[in-house]
């Protein structure tokens, strides 16, 4: 085991571009990569590219007819078949769509392979985490589901148990769907309640197929949940499940759209709480998965102020060189932000809320509190199926 973290990167991922009016602006990827360099984290990780995922890899999750439809739309965007979710407002077709989507998938698969084979202890692909894509269709800004493909590749390589933890503000529906009938994969998603946010799934009662009951766990958080509630919910559900499941590898998705500045959702989480969950996932990997950790990006549409800082923190945590929250961001990066976006970049690697305080679930709960009601609903729905006390 080399022990050194890998950052999966290829500049071509910035070609994942749905157009100038789409919220998923690829500038968020390039600015994150530049911030990693500006903070000196490029010296702490091994930066590696990977081959695009080939058809045989894509077929681990996606139907052959869907892959063919993506390829056709990639060649002729005007002929995209909307029955596959292509050419829609969420997923406009664009030239080269198959090539860049398969590259992002290949980077996540490459991260999984590196961790499984001991070439790295941790591997990060912040361009990945496209968790909404379904076996037979694009959805929610996602063409190929790189997160599912990484998990499927780990199973193909011999992993007996893979845990997937998704803290994006949106439900990790595509990954849940891919492994709904597979008890070898435990999917845990913390997300804004489906009553108030796309994709309107991720209810506590969604616990897996009859042959895999308890393999899906969903924690639907009330709109407006902030740092203390978000961390309380995470720690009330995730560590106990991971400890019980004892995964061979931990795969996590770190969408930054839980942030209070995100324009597409309604949680009120700070950068500092996001960093705290990143650290918690790192620690869970070491405590229960032999340190094997694959960390992915995801959503996040405050593309200047939030996403680059959140994912630079993720790289630092994975590299064993966590960035102190009070760190002042180098002026050169802020100048590049202004040159590229005409926006003023943030000054520090914190929202001023570090350290974040939260109340442990074991200290008791308030039955009248909406956050505690959500946690209890999840524990009651899923924990007994795994032989755990609700």
What structural keywords apply?
390 residues, alpha/beta, eight-stranded parallel sheet, 11 helices, 8 strands, 36% helix, globular
Kindly describe this structure.
Helix 1 (27-38) packs across helix 9, helix 1 (27-38) packs antiparallel against helix 10 and helix 7 (227-245) packs parallel to helix 8. This protein is an alpha/beta fold. The protein is built from eleven helices and eight strands. The protein has an eight-stranded parallel beta sheet with strand order 2-1-3-8-7-4-5-6, with helices on both faces.
Q: Describe the oligomeric state of these chains in a short phrase.
A: single chain
What general outline do the C-alpha atoms trace? globular
- Please summarize the sheet with the most strands: 8 strands, parallel
Number of strands: 8
Instruction: Please state the CA-atom Rg, rounded to the nearest Å.
Output: 19 Å
Q: Give the low-confidence spans.
A: none
H/I helix tally: 11
Roughly how many Å apart are the termini? 38 Å
Mean pLDDT over the full residue set: 97
Topology:
Layout: E1 6-8, H1 27-38, E2 46-48, H2 55-58, H3 64-75, H4 97-116, E3 122-125, H5 146-157, E4 162-166, H6 173-178, E5 185-192, E6 216-221, H7 227-245, E7 249-253, H8 271-288, E8 293-296, H9 307-319, H10 331-341, H11 370-382
Parallel strand pairs: 1-2, 1-3, 3-8, 4-5, 4-7, 5-6, 7-8
Helix pairs in contact: 1-9, 1-10, 4-5, 7-8, 7-11, 8-9
